[in-house]
């Protein structure tokens, strides 16, 4: 049986692999169409697995989870996936990936504060120091590359992009805490992580459809998907498999066992892993600065995970 921390590390690795096909798919289809496709594909893949591998009936998928589990996972899907990802995609479009990625480091902080409020998680000073080290290292890593395009962004777009860049990780952190609460609110039905992932993705997909209907933006992504514009289907499928399917399963497994703030801090290592994978794939040299910052970030995660052991070691009484 996997520990929650190991499941979180696997989630980070899986999501990092998924970044590459998603990047290719977005270049061919655009972010809106890819967002639609990944949610619907994940719902179908998760449902098929639950029905044919675990033996659920279609009715059981809906009636077995308790109302409060539907409530918290549904809110998690809406806030974390639909709203949070909308802000994330908009900030990427307005600011570019470098600055937007830097703001994703706010998600562990948001998860920490909302976990204190919603699920009464506790963390000692060593965990807070570890989180601070990790967040600071990730900011340094994200801002270490030059990006002259930022100077060409109009001022009003820059302000809107900064607002979206802040709101995206906050929503994602809140969404993860709500998923954690769904596992803690169990009374009689022990929710499987895969079942939780399906509920979260289903509500996220339905809310995205509702939002697109209201805003009149529902036709274009479907036209792009069904015509397979620029042959984006294969990378979109790859991204959907590694991201909202396999990655979401492991993330729900992790959050069922460990604190939301710890899980979100580990998930936040995706930029580090993507940097290493990209360097390996493209045979690029990594600067010593990037290596040191990466080690610093990992060290912060280790401090968070082992915060209680550090406390006992330094202050045994």
List descriptors.
mainly alpha; 80% helix; 317 residues; 15 helices
* Count of domain modules: 1
Average pLDDT level: 86
The shape, in one word, is globular
Oligomeric state of this protein: single chain
What's the main sheet like? none
Number of strands: 0
Q: How would you sum up this structure, described in words?
A:
The protein has 317 residues and is mainly α. It contains 15 helices and no strands. The longest helix has 30 residues, at 155-184. The two termini are 32 Å apart.
Quick overview of this protein structure:
The chain has helices spanning 4-29, 31-52, 58-63, 67-95, 97-103, 106-118, 125-143, 155-184, 193-215, 219-226, 233-255, 260-267, 270-282, 288-305, 307-314.
Q: What topology emerges from the helices and strands here?
A:
Elements: H1 4-29, H2 31-52, H3 58-63, H4 67-95, H5 97-103, H6 106-118, H7 125-143, H8 155-184, H9 193-215, H10 219-226, H11 233-255, H12 260-267, H13 270-282, H14 288-305, H15 307-314
